[in-house]
Amino acid sequence: MTGERGAYMANLGGQPVLILPEGAIRETGKSAQKNNIAAAKAVADAVKTTLGPKGMDKMLVDSVGDIVITNDGVTILEEMDVQHPAAKMLVEVAKTQDNEVGDGTTTAVVIAGALLREAEGLLDQNIHPTVIIRGYRLAREKALEKLEEIAKTISLKDRETLKKIASTSITGKSAEVAKDKLAEIAVDAVLSVVEEEDGKFVVDLDNIKIEKKEGASVDNTELIKGIVLDKEKVHAGMPSVVRNAKIALLDAAIEVKETETDAQIRITDPTQLQAFIEQEEKMIREMVEKIAETGANVVFTQKGIDDLAQHYLAKKGILAARRLKKSDMEALARATGARIVTSIDDLTKDDLGYAGIVEEKKIAGDDMIFVRECKDPKAVTILVRGGTEHVVEEMYRAMEDAVKSLASALESGKVVIGGGATEEALAKELRKYAEKVGGREQLAINKFADALEEIPRTLAENAGLDPIDILVELRARHEENKISYGVDVFDGKIKDMEKLGVIEPLRTKEQAISSASEAAEMILRIDDVIAAKRSSSSSGGGEGMGEFED
Predict the structure, then answer these.
(1) Domain 4-152+417-531 of CATH type 1.10.560.10
(2) Which top CATH class is 156-225+377-412?
(3) pLDDT in tens, 440-457
């Protein structure tokens, strides 16, 4: 029974027994497999043209008319609002890739799509899905093993290599116009916050804050050795620039506390009211005095600052900002060396942090506070600039990918060659391995090798080159054991990618191959799709699984 709409029935002694509700769809056997593969391939084809330095961008317009222009795989798939259940699994591949390593999302989806396309050919030859899955699993294990072998180690001192990793990540995005500068910024940011634990490097990406503001060219993007706050000083009388800043971080309000329990104060005489107001003023003045006594000339608080307190702080020449996010407070503590204090009474000069300069500046019409020139900041900010909102959004994504790539390269301590060189090296190895395995599984292992070659093939196609000529020449070079040779899309030739500085983190490739293979195996395992009737309130309003449109 394939693609049956309506109630699915079993026949019991001539009496129909309803099993599924009216309007449900059930697809079984080859029909289910074909549909799932077709949907997954459509997703892969949608992002395929964005791969590599010569990849094109997508313009995505949502239901309210907001536009996103990008060639970032995961962003495209998230914005596309994919409906088909099998297609959604490929979106998950991209999301996992993005969360784990930050880059290589398109690569992962393209490989998954290629694995399914190759499997379709085997299914047509009546090879059982479990045989294909077993072959794919063997191929994946062998590929990951070989990846470890061909990977090269890096350390913090390899600044040039780190810069190449960041450049490779940025190449092909709109940010390419300022590739060298952006790569330099990404390397400086990661090296500022990297820490060593048990002989391994750890990069906490929360310590690298990326702020974006349109209205200036990409060349104005800068690394601030400190923190940028999307806040303004609370009082016009406060200084806009404080040099040699001593910074107090408070998780307490600079205002008179209300009582914890419900309480009433009865005033029967105007003099009592005056005394009450004066007492409140005195308490606030004492709070400000305590802060000033520590030598603090900049105050940041997570809570509020009373109007009167603002006045007294301004008179003391103290710059203050209020209602900061918890994450910003923690970043400030790491950058300036200050300690977050929960009670003004407990504040001492030892709790203060230091910054060379704290200044309020107007960026793209908004006031922002820059905390710069920290001595040894363990948290930094990259301020990304771009001419328009859409440009700056894409710059932001490029910078995020570059920083995440550097973090994963340092954490694993290993890198591989890009430009399709690594995929071709693995494909060559898998073909040798397939001969040893024998049986029907060897067909699946060979298909896995063909699927990996989809990366150099797509790089060539996107650059307007002949993919067959490129693949033939690439295979020939690898037969000569030149495993660092890949596709130079700018020159249209097969060249040594290591010399050209096309380097990627090992973890990017490992994750792409693992998640693509696992997703393909899961889709191949499905031989029955039962979809309930869509509720009328859900988007689309149609029945069943909905058509997936590319």
Answers:
(1) yes
(2) alpha beta
(3) 899 999 999 999 999 999
- Choose the weakest-confidence range: 1-5, 79-83, 156-160, 350-354: 1-5
| Residue tagged active-site, from 70, 75, 96, 105 | 105
Site of tokens 């005394």: 275
Domain map (residue ranges) of the chain: 4-152+417-531, 156-225+377-412, 227-375
Q: Which class does domain 227-375 fall in?
A: alpha beta
* pLDDT per position as a tens digit, 465-495: 999 999 999 999 999 999 999 999 888 899 9
Task: Given the residues 50, 401, 488, 508, select the one marked as catalytic.
Answer: 401
Q: What is the pLDDT of residue 260?
A: 58
What are the angstrom distances between the C-alpha of 5 and each of 461, 535, 544? 41, 16, 8
Torsion of CA 454, 38, 104, 484, to 10 degrees: -10
- Told to judge if 198 belongs to the known catalytic residues of this protein, a careful annotator would answer no
Catalytic residue among 50, 72, 221, 381: 72
Is residue 219 predicted with pLDDT exceeding 50? yes
Same fold, 4-152+417-531 and 156-225+377-412: no
Is 98 marked active-site?
no
pLDDT at 322 over 70: yes
Smallest CA-to-CA distance from 70 within 364, 383, 396, 508 is with: 396
Q: Which residue in the list 106, 107, 171, 458 is annotated as catalytic?
A: 106
Q: Is 336 a catalytic residue?
A: no
Catalytic residue flag (residue 49) = no
- Is 124 in a helix, a strand, or coil? helix
